[in-house]
Amino acid sequence: MEDKNSTPYLIDVDHISKSFEDLHVLKDVTLKIKPKEVVVIIGPSGSGKSTLLRCMNGLETPTSGTVYFDGIALNSEDNLNKVRTEVGMVFQRFNLFPHMTVIKNIMLAPMKVRKVSKEEAYARGMKLLEKVGLKDKANAMPSQLSGGQQQRVAIARALAMKPKALLFDEPTSALDPEMVHDVLDIMKEVAMEGMTMVVVTHEMGFAKEVGTRVLFVDHGTILEEGTPEEVFDHTREERTKNFLSKVLK
Questions:
Q1: Which residues pair with residue 197 across a beta bridge?
Q2: pLDDT, tens only, 96-154
Q3: Which of 155, 158, 161, 58 is nearest to 114 (CA)?
């Protein structure tokens, strides 16, 4: 089936599995995400969290099953290119272009992909830099910024494309502790503005406060899911309890 145009879901992960040779990273995972939901994925390292996220925008191709974004199946190059213009991705390691200034990093995709004029891309970029508190760094090079500042620029760059959804892959795990708060504040603000977000994170405070739904992933499956209150305060699975008892200390 090519598409699901009548679906109420923005992201529809339909029975996907993913293997790397003999390693089964995802096992028959199904997940449906409505517009404006903030879905936070937690779980131990190596559980398949990041692979699941990367399947949502085609950075990884499932071994079986299908991912749909806004009714479009991620099963062809044309469809992937179409979907990637609508899904922003924020990585653990920022991935800014080191040879470009901050503002040029933000302007590039809207100009190349959305065919936005240079003037409009600049105006949009400066507005977003103001939003993330870095307007004065517009002409700096990424190497002149701290890790936290680079991550805030990466969020501004993702927002510049006016995406329908933002995916975050452990966006604070490479940061010094004092930088984490600034990045989480920006993410919280974006969520409150109604952006659909899927966040892989170890920041349990963010999951509790901002998530509309929390998924606990272990050994390639969604072992538990629910509201933050259900997952954190009324945990059903012993494995989830064990994990939370360690990370919430």
A1: 38, 166
A2: 999 999 999 999 999 999 999 999 999 999 999 999 999 999 999 999 999 999 999 99
A3: 161
Tell me the two tokens of residue 169: 């892959």
Torsion angle of the four alpha carbons 76, 82, 87, 91, in this order, in degrees rounded to the nearest 10: 60
**Domains of the chain, CATH where assigned:** 11-248 (3.40.50.300)
Kindly report, residue by residue over 177-201, the tens digit of the pLDDT.
888 999 999 999 999 999 999 999 9
The C-alpha atoms of residue 18 and residue 26 are separated, in whole angstroms, by: 5
